[in-house]
Specification:
Layout lengths: L9 H17 L4 H8 L3 H17 L19 H18 L3 H35 L2
Helix pairs in contact: 1-2, 1-3, 1-4, 3-5, 4-5
């Protein structure tokens, strides 16, 4: 059995991202949402995710942008984020071990919770606005 190492290089990030999204694409619950949104732009999305996680975990500032807006109107709920986290944690735990791997899971958990909160906030605001506008 090989000893797992921590996430330390861009190649590690690429392995994590590619492995994670390979599983996501095939997942019966969240795969259709990702595949429907991303379509044939998976290579572009993966490149963006490499830069995002490289910036977050390795402090190599290769990503700029706001990660939330593309997710704002996705048809997702807490159960979708829970499944996303299950896959992410399993992927990290299968491939890596160490403080940066632990940080990756913590950052993913914080992001999933924040995205879920914000999506629900905007969904509720939109629905309440629709109710107010219909009176």
């Amino acid at each position: 059995m090989t000893t797992k190492t921590d996430i330390t290089t861009l190649d590690d990030i690429k392995l994590l991202v590619d492995s994670f999204y390979s599983t996501v694409q095939k997942d019966a619950f969240i795969g259709p949402i990702f595949n429907g949104k991303i379509g044939n732009r998976w290579p572009e999305h993966l490149e963006k995710m490499y830069r995002f996680w490289q910036t977050i975990l390795l402090e190599v500032h290769s990503y700029s942008g706001s990660p939330f807006p593309p997710h704002k109107h996705l048809p997702v709920d807490k159960e979708h984020f829970d499944r996303w986290m299950e896959i992410f944690v399993a992927t990290v735990d299968t491939l890596f071990e160490g403080p940066i791997a632990d940080e990756a899971k913590m950052r993913a958990k914080n992001m999933a919770e924040m995205f879920n909160y914000k999506i629900n906030y905007f969904r509720d605001a939109s629905q309440n606005g629709d109710l107010l506008n219909s009176k």
